[in-house]
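hiii, so i know i said id send this last week but things got crazy w the move. better late than never?? heres the sequnce for the chain we talked about at the cafe, plus the structure i predicted for it. fair warning i was half asleep when i ran it
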Amino acid sequence: MKRLFSPFVLVLSALLAAAYAYAAWRLTSSHLAGVLLALPFVLVWLVPVVYWVYERENHTRADDLLHATSYLAMGWLNFVLLLSLARDALLWLSAGAAPSLHAGLGAAGAAVVYWGAAVALGVGALAALRGPHVRHVEIPLADLPTEWEGLRIVQISDLHVGPTIGAAYVRRVVEMSNALAPDLVALTGDIVDGTVARLAQDVAPLADLTAKEGIFLVLGNHDYYSGAVPWVKQFEALGLQVLRNEYRLFERGVVRLVVGGVTDPAAHLDVPPQLPQPALAAAPEVGPAVRLLLAHHPKLAPLAEQAGFDLQLSGHTHAGQFFPWTLAVRLVHGPHVAGLSRHGRLWVYVSAGTGTWGPPVRLGTRPELTLLRLVRAA
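okay and structure toks below
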């Protein structure tokens, strides 16, 4: 019982209770309607409390079903609250000024909000589950040696294999990546949401990834939550090179390329705890080189620039996935939210994510498989 009174549970419960109170006040007119509306709020509450606070492992199909149902309820309630607020704003603005509109909005009642939220959820789920599109990005590097000009890098990020993304989705991503004939494949974290025992078969298609120079992976926060030690062994068994404050060196003639990778800030959960150290991953001892850093979290950009990297590939933000989080994420992660940006001399590319976390919904964003190409700056 003590865990139910932890600060996290109390804050979560208070936020959900306040949201429910508003929705029930504005959208229900009977006891039965209030009870039915409470069900999705309870589903949203259950997953973090049962699986995070009480540390229940996600092992069975029933666990996956509860997660998926909870995530869909979360997405639907997001749009219910947004549309209800929009309806109330229009009711307030139209009062006296537009009597016919005001009367129409009042008569429409909760049905418009509920069905509008269902349509938004359906459209967003279709956009998410149809899979990623290929996004082509050119990275202009000053003084890029001709030996590395045109290097093709496929970035896969934030797959979140788990309750809503399985082997079929992963296989499609692998086929798309291989069709692009990359020189390097970079997996920039949050590949899984669950244990090796539960998800080994779903991630198995990653073994079929191909690239001329190699396939590299860094862990994201969700990979640490899912068990970094067993997952590193599993990824390496699939032929992926996991970089944890490490690098790999490539040479074409006398010209070098350093591919470095760092741990995530969530690595403090590892045993022993680790900190992301771009300076170690930069291989300063090898001298002049083109330097590429894989770092799940974009906030590591200042350290990457100090370490001498030319390009950082990150994920983590999902570009917000759907409104209004597409706006909120800019407050938290700006200026490196999604797409290409600069930090001093360092280029930073943040993938919008190849999969989805939580609600399998994309509205205002698209899942992406990114093909990056190094070019000489004009």
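btw The chain has two domains: 2-128, 133-376. thought thatd interest u
miss u guys!!
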